[in-house]
Amino acid sequence: MEVSSNLPSLPEENSQESKDLSSFPAVPDRPATQSSLQKYSPLDWKGYFDQEEDVTIAGSNDVFHVYTAGSQGPVVFCLHGGGYSGLSFALAASKIKEKARVVAMDLRGHGKSSTDNDVDLSIETLCDDVLAVLKTMYGDSPPAIVLVGHSMGGSIAVHAAAKKVIQSLAGLIVVDVVEGTAMASLIHMQKILSSRMQYFHTIEKAIEWSVKGGSLRNVESARLSVPSTLSYNDLKKCYTYRTPLEETERYWKGWYEGLSEMFLSCPVPKLLLLAGTDRLDRSLTIGQMQGKFQMVVVRHTGHAIQEDVPDEFASLVLNFISRNRIGPHGVEVFVNHRSNENSAGSSTRQVLVTGIYV
Fold first, then answer.
1. Is 337 a catalytic residue?
2. Among 28, 172, 204, 257, which is most exposed with the fewest C-beta within 10 angstroms?
3. What residue spans define the domains of the chain?
């Protein structure tokens, strides 16, 4: 789960990033220069996705906002982490749409989606939401679908796949979430959530903090995704987080408990993208050695792999589609394979997670 638009991930005790995270809020605000305002100004999604639409679920007041891109090929259906939004995948979508379709939804309580109970972030409810959106969008004849989930969204993707009700499900990609590491981080979550910067006088300040004290490392992606994770507080006359993650603690354990075995049991091709080999727990280590899924360690990135290195993320997704011959009707998508895929034993740089497992 991740805080805010970026759940700061578990900083290590003596790391420089940990120092930055704790000290940043204490630094007095300096007057923003025109250049800094321009550097951190919001970007419009229209240069990356093709359309946005609201998906209304029959028999309810639930309306889910989705961003779409591309017109042919399988559907890469993207689920963001806790505190993020569908725009977390904007930069990657602009590349993926050249070979496949992309759909990125704002989950319940996030972005522009609206439901009767925005704080019900139980894994059961979130999973049902995703299945309902897929059913509403594609009816009884869905195209080939590859579920992609980051952090909390990765858990939702696994649970949705494990239900075995998506008849055209052709692949599962989980981004930087592992049961063992996530469960161990739960005791630190409230502390991390409370230590982040809570209020911002401008959206530009929120974007700036997200890359200087938060979990994002790509300024362009932050300019796209961070505004959608904020809401304006009329009482305090400033911006704060759209999603009150600190109020959802009762659901955290359910997101990750049993996740590794459930992931291994999903009967479709699987890819696990990690920011560091230290993430693997025992079940996944054994499963990876047995060849039950493909694993790639993405170097020089933080927790939000799809935002930090969107070009590499898009290539990995398209390579996965190509290798497994996933298409609208089983038609292969041809993509040049890159040699950046590493197994657990590969030489990789240990990367500090800069966002919580939301």
1. no
2. 28
3. 16-323
